[in-house]
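Budget justification note: compute hours in this period were largely spent on complex prediction jobs such as the one shown. Inputs:
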Amino acid sequence: MIEANTPLLRLLRTYWPLVMLSLGLLIIVAIVDSSGDVILAQTLIEGLVRIVIVAALYLFIGNSGIISFGHIGFVMIGAYATAWQTCCPYTREMFMPGLPVYLLNNSHHFVLAIFLGGLLAAVVALISGYAIMRLSGIAASIGTFALMMVFYSIYLRWSTWTSGASSVIGLPTTTTPWVGYAYAVVAIVGAFLYSRSKWGLALRSSRDDEVAAKAAGVNVFGQRLLAFVVSAFFCGMAGGLFGHFLGMLTVDSFGLGMTFITLSMLVLGGMQSLTGAVVGVVVLSFLIDILRRLENGMVSGLNLPTSSAEVFVGIVIILILMFRQSGITGNQEVYWPFKGDVSASSAMKRQS
Amino acid sequence: MDFAIQTIISALSFGSFYALGALGIGLLFSVLRLINFAHGDFITLGGYALIVPSSAVVAAALIGGFHPVLVIVIIVAFVVILALLTYFLIFQYVQNSSPATMMIVSFALGYTLQNIVVMIYGGRPKAVNLFPELTGQVQLSDGVGVQILQLVIIAVTWILLIALVLFFRRTRAGVQMRAAAEDFRMARMLGVRGKRLIALAFILSGALAGIMSLLFVTQKGVLTFEMGVPIMLFFFIATVIGGMGSLVGAVVGGYAVGIASVVLSAVLPEDIRPFRDACVFLIVIIVLLWRPQGLVLKKASQERV
Amino acid sequence: MLLSVENITVHYSRLPALRNVSVEVDEGEIVCIVGPNGAGKSTTLLSISGVLNPTSGEIIFDGQKINGMNPETVARAGISQVPEGRHVFTTLNVEENLRIGTTIRNDRAEIEKDFKRVLETFPVLAERRKQSAGKLSGGEQQMLVIGRALLTNPRIMTIDEPSLGLAPNLVDRVYETLTELRRDRGLTLLIVEQSSERALKSADRLYVLRSGEMQLEGNTADLQDGEKVRQAYFGFEEGTPQEGGVTF
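Corresponding output:
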């Protein structure tokens, strides 16, 4: 058996969940990319974008214990902010005539645009979180929900910047499977490093016992706000990726539906583990893809009625919350499979 | 003057409708700490029960074609049974979880119910003509006409409110329910049967939803699988503004939201009017920050059956 | 034996709060459990009431095993508990609070008789019948919860720290009432207190609980000098130097 006693092995063990998750995704991306199945490739890219969102959700929800219904608002903010910089140079003024002159006449590179989109989401999260992160428990959850509805209704009506109820069409479709993979890994690394940091630890202490954490000197409000802002940043970037995956944006797609599906993925995998976030996205995306194919009669002899996939997702989430709230992963990370120093490996398991 | 009377009646009828919805949510929240996001979908399902299950474009009346009394009884019974089933099959197993977890469960339930409707009835809107005689106008005085239905909604609401007040003040079960809402564990230690009481709350909440199905479908004249969602959001706002867990608060919140939305549409300056919904949700956040009391869990009431 | 708790162990998640604790209460007795903060006194009462479930051991009430039953069933079997912190329903008025106590009964005529009797025993409640229970003073609330528990017509009443937060003269009044209730109606009482002084005065038998384990049990008549109780309470060894004038 390998003993974790050389510096290199120690390092590997510390970052083992990261290694496993990135490798696992790499294999999936490679297989799908070489299979040439177009529909599967679409599912894959969408899944990778969702990994960014769900990893960000884990970063906030898993560590703070506050269930947020509002993060899709940040996805939307990032998506539109990116579109302002990259969309359709010739028709941008037609879709979004209210943009400032600089944005009407200049386009940014995709990577910069996505980064700035994430930044805008983070700034909005900082301002709104400054109010909402003072709340705890269900009041905080309701607050994030109301926040999402505020963003949603503003973007729906703010037609000179967002095209309102109609779509913005003509974003370059730059989110390929490999681009999606790169961002998914970035989000996973970000969420992992945050959770391991002293801030992540402080926030988890408040999740387990808010009063005790406060008594131990943890600034619960500050820590929550930090996690809220960081996770909003990743959500914003995911929004940019999403727009450049579909090639178009509608406010309507950033509503309760997306909120529900991403939360479901996190719940399915296990809310308090990063591995759970990734596993939840992979498993649910895969199942939905299969069910969609069955609905469309792509497999002979089996023809499911429309909406089967949705009904299935709804029932699975209800059952998971009824009988196994810790999700598929039981809120654990992928752990070091080799024998070694027990205290270190149990610390890893509990690290979630 | 005529315009004012019409606006007032319209505001009152909106308010009454929201008050009933907020009560349905408040009832469950008070004893169970459950914010039931499927409440709007209970209303939807009550509406769909009126017509023949098929994905045909033209809806054929099923229960909707019966004698009016029968229509009311069957639809209310249907929604009550639906609500009870969700308790015994689902919510009973998660009632000791955090309120936020229960909220996700109710989200999932609502999502499932909507898609079951799509599965059975198809996704397209269906026209339904329920109680057409109620959609006519009645002349109050010279030139002041109001829709009969609006008056019916107000009247039905007040009858139900009085009935509920009598229930909570005068009956044993009602007093027990108030006690359980405040301190569930203590109530049980005095012999109040927890499960039965929660089931009763689901029955009442379901009955309110059933009655609202009829009122809503009569007014809308059309069924869509998502029609429960926007009204649910308003009920939800009303319950939060009223201070969750207080039933009087729910009624006040319902009227506040109903009246505010009618008045705001009438008086808000042209360029802000589109952002009315955003303003309303902003008010929710302000209320949460200002007085989250209604939402704070009392320690003793955490333990459920 | 009316109630016997036999070797129960209770865990809060993984931590044991009680280890092999046994308590017996006979018909008509007043039994006191005393012990410092965190000794497991409330845990014992909550286990009897079915709020907590022992991981091992049994609780037998009137020949019937009651551990594992839910709180309402235990209440219906005839055990009424007044938990720590009083727990009046503040949104209900005084009369409604008392009426909740009659939830488990259907004998209307008897209920009305008992209702009158409770109001006679606690005249202050009769005066404030229609007032919100939240507006009562601490002592009045204590009367209210005792009255409410009485109305369940219990065979045994368990009370968690009836003296908590009350002025000394009110504590006297509460204990006077409790001993009267025993004398007049043969009520069996199991009382939890922090102060052993009070217990030695009012109870027939006494248990001392510390750190989740039973340290001592005996008739109060044999323990009046207080020395043994003090040792059990604080865990002093025989011969350990003690500070003078320890009051507890």
